[in-house]
Design a protein that fits this description.
Length: about 250
């Protein structure tokens, strides 16, 4: 009576993954990150360059990270991704130069690539193991809502604590990623319903080459999506300097 049935640990994945989405979106430093860079002696050009490095790291790591998740498991992908992410934020908490921050952005980008998609995959596979795949759309919708609310609330909190010290939001962010890592370790990897052998890593390069050389529509769609994402964030970075000048 007191023992868990085999399905019960997997059933807990959905709630844990919602918590992970919230922690993932706890972007305390976003409202003041450019001001933080300037307080460390960086120019606005260097600040934008750091975000370009982040975007490039995410873009480059997107396909290999999917391979890693398929080969070694979604849970392991989330754990490794959060470890790299945590290292990146620890650098922000302790260092103060462009080169260190560039390293942190690379770590955060690769970590974000490992996390991206792996959480949704483990959620779907958990629901599949429980015979509840019809609930996946509702699960994903609630996850998006949690991310949006968390990002807004934590952004306001980050701006508030930054009035005492611009590094405080980074401490809060690091704490959240540490909590993310701890929660990710509690996930239960669901059994694959149709296990297939993952191709070797040598097959990745031909597939990537095919995307950019043969499948032109997919290539332009990827580049358009990346440009649109970078452009929207560029407004966030530049607006901080503008608002300070107008204050």
């Amino acid at each position: 009576m007191g023992h868990l049935r085999p399905a019960e640990p997997i059933a807990k994945n959905s709630t844990t993954l919602w918590l992970l989405k919230g922690l993932e979106s706890a972007w305390f430093p976003i409202p003041v990150i450019v001001l933080f860079y300037e307080s460390q002696g960086l120019s606005i050009v260097q600040a934008i360059a750091l975000k370009a490095i982040l975007s490039a790291a995410i873009f480059v790591g997107e396909i290999p990270s999917g391979y890693f998740a398929d080969r070694f498991g979604r849970k392991n992908s989330l754990v490794l991704g959060s470890c790299l992410w945590l290292l990146g934020w620890l650098i922000y908490c302790t260092q103060g130069s462009f080169s260190w921050f560039a390293g942190a952005e690379i770590l955060a980008g690769i970590g974000g690539s490992l996390i991206s998609g792996a959480d949704s995959a483990i959620a779907y596979e958990s629901l599949l193991a429980l015979g509840r795949t019809d609930k996946y759309a509702a699960w994903e919708g609630k996850g998006v809502a949690i991310m949006g609310i968390t990002e807004a609330v934590c952004g306001l909190m980050g701006a508030w604590v930054a009035q005492w010290d611009l590094r405080y939001p980074f401490y809060l962010q690091t704490f959240c990623i540490g909590a993310y890592l701890g929660l990710a370790l509690t996930l239960r990897e669901p059994p694959q319903q149709h296990p297939e052998k993952t191709p070797g890593w040598r097959t990745l390069l031909p597939q990537i080459r095919a995307i950019f050389q043969e499948r032109r529509s997919l290539r332009w769609l990827l580049l358009f999506s990346a440009s649109l994402s970078c452009g929207s964030f560029l407004v966030v970075w530049v607006s901080q300097e503008y608002l300070v000048d107008r204050a």
